[in-house]
Specification:
mainly beta, Lipocalin, 2 domains, nine-stranded antiparallel sheet, 1 helix, 8% helix, elongated
């Protein structure tokens, strides 16, 4: 093949490859809310199997590498969801060249979103729960005062065979609530339990047989100390 033809062929192949994956890359821009504009960054990359992965960053929304889910890419149209952030955020848009124009939807509200392709995607690997120390496994319970009433909390921590821990809260107050913990991490004597869909985080330290910490729910914080739970009827 003549050199000129070969160069033309390679250039066409590069253009075709770029056109086939217009959504891939790092997208930076602003969500235009009433009275302010928020910086957002979305990374989208295609896997070798043809699927899509992505992550989100927005300091103003306290988002740092949150995974994208329900990613749908068809030609120049793109949609995805950021779960556990503000109760869930959905982005829909259309790509034209290096510009993404669409909407940012949250809690039934919609705001315009415009982004530019800023280069290669830098997808954050999804966070994973860690195991917890043996002396943290099991059932714990304690009481906290939430605004004007008492809530009894019972926590179950379990290490799984895959090396990660799972956790569940049962809350008994004005009503009974079961909560599955989405993320369990332990560093030294500090354990952090995250339930983003309910805007809940618990940070506690194990000292002298007690996990003492703070229950944070949205903008509110309540002290919570957990001790080994008494066995319920039927437990051995």
């Amino acid at each position: 093949m003549p050199l000129l033809h070969r160069a033309a062929f390679l250039a066409a192949a590069i253009v075709f490859a770029h056109a086939a994956e217009p959504a891939a890359g790092r997208w930076e821009g602003t969500v235009r809310l009433p009275g302010r504009a928020l910086l957002v960054v979305f990374d989208l990359a295609q896997t070798s199997e043809g699927g899509w992965i992505g992550s989100a960053i927005s300091p103003a929304l306290n988002i740092a590498g949150a995974p994208l889910s329900d990613i749908a890419v068809k030609d120049s149209t793109v949609s995805f969801v950021v779960k556990g952030v503000l109760g869930g955020v959905k982005v829909n848009g259309t790509i034209a060249g290096d510009t993404f124009t669409g909407t940012f939807e949250q809690a039934g509200n919609s705001a315009p979103l415009t982004m530019k392709n800023a280069g290669t995607a830098q997808v954050e690997p999804p966070r994973q729960s860690t195991a917890v120390a043996k002396d943290m496994e099991g059932d714990w319970e304690g009481d906290m005062t939430v605004v004007d009433h008492n809530v009894h909390a019972r926590l179950t921590l379990t290490n799984q065979s895959d090396g990660h821990a799972t956790a569940k809260f049962f809350l008994h107050g004005r009503r009974d609530v079961n909560l599955d913990v989405a993320m369990v991490t332990q560093e030294s004597d500090l354990i952090t339990l995250e339930i983003p869909d309910a805007f809940i985080t618990f940070d506690g330290r194990l000292r002298n047989g007690e996990i003492s910490g703070v229950w944070q729910q949205g903008p509110y914080e309540f002290p919570l100390a957990l001790h080994r739970a008494a066995k319920t009827s039927g437990e051995k």
